[in-house]
């Protein structure tokens, strides 16, 4: 079966968007709240009708991720930031693989997320309560799977407990996108051998929307 490179690119953009938002938070203490909301909501969307439905049925919701991915391989700019972004993305992909291989881990994560969705729908959790709950899920279900993703940035910013919760929530959203990426046929070899096609697809999606 031919791979759908548009779906693969969208899921990859989800991983990249989570990584880019983590990067911005760690260095600047703030980022695009709408883009954060898209990623947080993607965690709870467990029965999507399509890849794009995971991200609110709007390619524009992945603008941050598509732009960051399309620019990652441009070596005439912020090479340090690109290396950091790549490290976060690969770290997320590694944790997704560990999650997939750990007996019962995916089922337990799914149960916790279902419970979170129930709490949100029935008790109207505030955004801060949502972030803290998702961060707790990340610590309980992901942190023990392998080497932790070392987030670098301003030490003062990273001491802020709300920033910490946002970072962990975004990393979990990146893992959710990595699960989706693998489900639609994505793999790390494509980043080596089909990179041009993926970047071209990202640029096409940006131009169309």
TrEMBL record:
Membrane topology category: Peripheral membrane protein
Gene name for this UniProt entry: hflD
A GO cellular component annotation in the UniProt record: cytoplasm
Name recorded for this polypeptide: High frequency lysogenization protein HflD homolog
Keywords carried by this UniProt record: Cell membrane, Cytoplasm, Membrane
Localization in the cell: Cytoplasm; Cell membrane
Pfam assignment, any one: DUF489
Keyword Cytoplasm carried by entry: yes
Entry keyword Cytoplasm: yes
Similarity field: Belongs to the HflD family.
Main localization, broad class: cytoplasm
SUPFAM superfamilies, alphabetized: YcfC-like
